[in-house]
Amino acid sequence: GPLNDLRLESFDFTGDIRLSHVGYARPLGKGKGGIGISWTVGGAMHDDQFGTNLPGGISQYLDSIRINTSFLNIAWGRASEDQSFSFGLGVVLAMNSVYNRQKIVFTDPNIPTSDARSEDEGFGVGALAGIILTPKGKANLTFGASIRTPIEIQDPQDAGTLYSKIPGRAAISLAVRQD
User: Fold this and answer.
1) pTM of the predicted model, to two decimals?
2) Exposure class string for 143-173: b at 16+ Cβ within 10 A, else e
3) 3-class DSSP state for residue 34?
4) Residues whose CB falls within 8 Å of the CB of residue 101, separated by 6 or more in sequence, listed in order
5) Cα–Cα distance for residue pair 55/68, rounded to 1 Å
6) pLDDT tens digits for 41-99?
7) Structure-derived torsion over alpha carbons of residues 24, 77, 81, 28, reported in degrees to the nearest 10
8) How many CB atoms neighbour CB 58 within 10 A?
9) Angle at the Cα of 135 (from 92 to 141), degrees rounded to 5?
């Protein structure tokens, strides 16, 4: 049929310029470490398919989907007295939203327009931890490692988000500064 065998042309364009990360950290006092909070867009997608005067009696066709996953992190960290080693622990709240719309207008005025929309949001909680190490006598070298647990997305409406689990993540890093 015409909806299962569409001829598609693709093009891309730059979307809106938006904030994708913001954070704030505050020391708690000497030897007590500090706390931080951050919000990060972990992923976003906006995809539209549309057409006019398609085969099979379709006057207009629109299929639109928008997906956004954001993370709110709240963490505590502490550094050693000489600042060569630091570690942190935190909680991460993942927020996932999905919006989908499909509209089909037929050339036959006796066939009603099909216009379906769905929206869904899901939330999940995970944990994160990380370390940073600058070896003594090597001020220009820093190692880091962090881990985030997998996050199960809970859907209050039980309508099913696009995915039910955000995979865990482990990262290691190395930074070298040359003067």
Assistant:
1) 0.74
2) eeebebeebebebeeeeebeeeebeeeeeee
3) strand
4) 62, 63, 64, 65, 115, 116, 117, 118
5) 33
6) 988 888 888 888 887 888 998 888 888 889 999 999 999 988 899 999 999 999 988 88
7) 60
8) 20
9) 80
